[in-house]
Amino acid sequence: MATARPRVAYWFRTDLRLHDSPALKAALDLEPEVLWPIFTWDPHYVYRVKAGSNRWQYLLDCQQDLSDSILKLNPKSKLFVIREAPQTLFPKLFEALKVTHLVFERDTDVYARERDKLVTGAAKKAGVEVVTRYGRTLWDSDEVVAKNGGKPTMSITQLQAAGHKVGEIPRPIPAPDRLPDPGEMPLHFDQERAPTTVDLNAPHRSKADKTYDSIAGPKGDFAIVTLEELGFPAATTPHRGGETLALKQLDKIMADEKYAATFRKPNTSPAAFEPQSTTLLSPHMHFGALSARLFYWRAREVVEKYGKGASKPPESLTGQLLFRDMYFAAQAAIGLPYMQTLNNVYVRFIPWHLPSQHEETETGTVAISSKYHIDSPQANKWFKRWKAGVTGFPFVDALMRQLRIEGWIHHLGRHMVACFLTRGGCYVHWERGADVFEELLIDHEPASNAGNWQWLSCTAFFSQYFRCYSPVAFGQKWDKNGDFIRRWVPELKHLDAKYIYEPRKATRAALDKAGVRVEGDGLGNNRNEGLNIYPEAMFDFKERRSVCMSAMKRAFSIGLHGNDEAVRNGTWKQLFERAGETEMEGMDGVDGVGGSDDEGEYADDADADHESHHILKGRKGGKHTRNKSDAVKEGPMDRHVKRLKS
Ligand SMILES: Cc1cc2nc3c(=O)[nH]c(=O)nc-3n(C[C@H](O)[C@H](O)[C@H](O)COP(=O)(O)OP(=O)(O)OC[C@H]3O[C@@H](n4cnc5c(N)ncnc54)[C@H](O)[C@@H]3O)c2cc1C
């Protein structure tokens, strides 16, 4: 008697592609009788992960492109989008479709692991075999962790050593040339609606979310969701998603052999636009529209062919992908605390302003929430100005506005704004910055985002806090004329290049000629006789830099980490007070009180130091060689408030 052939539910998640998909290959190797390509519209991501229109549009692009590609291989098939949480949907689906196998690409993200555990348990209970493969990274992150002694990879060297032990990075698998038919799709069961008491994306919605109005979409055809249904306004980003575009972009990059083979990240400009100086492949990889291994091997082949003069990791293109793997493996090892300071043994405790509030998660653990304590109204105002791109530092503002409109900024631009918000200006918690990036980036990747914020704030991965980005000198290094600023800060479009990074220094005549006034904080409704208004700088950068460095030095010498008892029970404060530190959480203002005004506040010289723009040298660090000012006689917030009052 012939045995029945498998009935496979293929669950697409972070792998919205057909090429180089080990999980899809495993599904096809089962020689299924039927295969349903399924995407579950998971309320966790709809309501509990912050994302604006730009990232949603990118996801929908990727889904549409994948669905079109599936249809090309089999006109009876497509991507079936089912609108319910996978945890409640799959048990019903297993029964309704008589599924024998569930196949998916593994995901090491914290929520995903929990979700997959539940779904796998339900599958076992239903007698459904679960087949999984890793596919998001160069190496299997869990294997890397195992080869790294069960520890997170906190440096590129550790990643390379562990990766070496895992073995050669697998060569990419070609896309299939045919796909089985899907079976019938009778959904004779009720849709379970998730509670929507928490909706972190409510601020982005201009209309009500209708995505769960019916389980198979408004026409019952399992269509891709639309931005309209989500209640979001149209996207503003020019960047579009999908495997077809991703592969085209990869081809274009690799066709320019010199660019690809000699790519050195520290030499790429954060001020370049149309085109940008790096590949812009990160959002494609985030959604799995491009395989990291295909990218890696294509880059490696170009390098090998090019020979002398080609770049090497970590600066090269392949090196960039190693950084990505390093963060994924670090997250895989640390789990939930990876995303935060609390309970994270690897993250230094720095008493930044605006610390996160904590709450119990869906899975019962304590984690940071999207709410924070306003310990300092002044720092809160700086944070708001940073987020809105109205700090009065044109290079920072240009980057933050590009982030808001396009959802992507160059890596060194991310360095600039992250350093400025944390240890090189505002002394605001890196978790606030990571939160804003989560909301605005089209390539937001939890592992890369949290890890890079830790790096930039010198709380983990990197410790050279005395290397600090100047919003003036760093921008000028790449773009003397300020073309990038002119593009994103149109108020300053006609300002003389001499003043474009520091409009406060411009003469009245220069400002008149450019048709701009420098006044206010940028948050209000600034209109002045038809002139453009650009905000005043929100602080004296040089002063803030020195305050932050002193505070960092103190925090490093106290040496607490996220899992220390003193951090958990709040007694850390005594240690810092004893050490004479004043720039810290809770040392200024009252919880929840509105901001004081910093209008007109801007002092002397902007810093002209050349900072480290490179992430690639001396990452052991820790030696304090350049700290100019260790003395903190009174809190900087105190000084500000005093000055504002006088
Ligand atoms: C504060 C901060 C937050 C960040 N948040 C994210 C994020 O949420 N998602 C994200 O993908 N990247 C993040 N990065 C890393 C990096 O900035 C982006 O990956 C990169 O700018 C994407 O542009 P690209 O594709 O042109 O990069 P390229 O320079 O062309 O590099 C190729 C690929 O390598 C990977 N890569 C390069 N650098 C890094 C890095 N430092 N860390 C991880 N992967 C890297 C990316 O996948 C990228 O697409 C962040 C960096 C900083 C400083």
UniProtKB/TrEMBL annotation:
<dbReference type="InterPro" id="IPR005101">
    <property type="entry name" value="Cryptochr/Photolyase_FAD-bd"/>
</dbReference>
<feature type="compositionally biased region" description="Basic residues">
    <location>
        <begin position="615"/>
        <end position="626"/>
    </location>
</feature>
<feature type="region of interest" description="Disordered">
    <location>
        <begin position="585"/>
        <end position="646"/>
    </location>
</feature>
<dbReference type="Pfam" id="PF00875">
    <property type="entry name" value="DNA_photolyase"/>
</dbReference>
<dbReference type="InterPro" id="IPR036155">
    <property type="entry name" value="Crypto/Photolyase_N_sf"/>
</dbReference>
<feature type="domain" description="Photolyase/cryptochrome alpha/beta">
    <location>
        <begin position="6"/>
        <end position="138"/>
    </location>
</feature>
<keyword id="KW-0285">Flavoprotein</keyword>
<dbReference type="GO" id="GO:0003677">
    <property type="term" value="F:DNA binding"/>
</dbReference>
<dbReference type="InterPro" id="IPR006050">
    <property type="entry name" value="DNA_photolyase_N"/>
</dbReference>
<feature type="compositionally biased region" description="Basic and acidic residues">
    <location>
        <begin position="627"/>
        <end position="639"/>
    </location>
</feature>
<feature type="binding site">
    <location>
        <begin position="278"/>
        <end position="282"/>
    </location>
    <ligand>
        <name>FAD</name>
    </ligand>
</feature>
<dbReference type="InterPro" id="IPR036134">
    <property type="entry name" value="Crypto/Photolyase_FAD-like_sf"/>
</dbReference>
<dbReference type="GO" id="GO:0071949">
    <property type="term" value="F:FAD binding"/>
</dbReference>
<protein>
    <recommendedName>
        <fullName>Photolyase/cryptochrome alpha/beta domain-containing protein</fullName>
    </recommendedName>
</protein>
<comment type="similarity">
    <text>Belongs to the DNA photolyase class-1 family.</text>
</comment>
<feature type="compositionally biased region" description="Acidic residues">
    <location>
        <begin position="596"/>
        <end position="608"/>
    </location>
</feature>
<keyword id="KW-0274">FAD</keyword>
<dbReference type="Pfam" id="PF03441">
    <property type="entry name" value="FAD_binding_7"/>
</dbReference>
<dbReference type="InterPro" id="IPR014729">
    <property type="entry name" value="Rossmann-like_a/b/a_fold"/>
</dbReference>
<dbReference type="GO" id="GO:0003904">
    <property type="term" value="F:deoxyribodipyrimidine photo-lyase activity"/>
</dbReference>
<dbReference type="GO" id="GO:0043153">
    <property type="term" value="P:entrainment of circadian clock by photoperiod"/>
</dbReference>
<dbReference type="InterPro" id="IPR002081">
    <property type="entry name" value="Cryptochrome/DNA_photolyase_1"/>
</dbReference>
<dbReference type="GO" id="GO:0005634">
    <property type="term" value="C:nucleus"/>
</dbReference>
<dbReference type="GO" id="GO:0005737">
    <property type="term" value="C:cytoplasm"/>
</dbReference>
<dbReference type="GO" id="GO:0032922">
    <property type="term" value="P:circadian regulation of gene expression"/>
</dbReference>
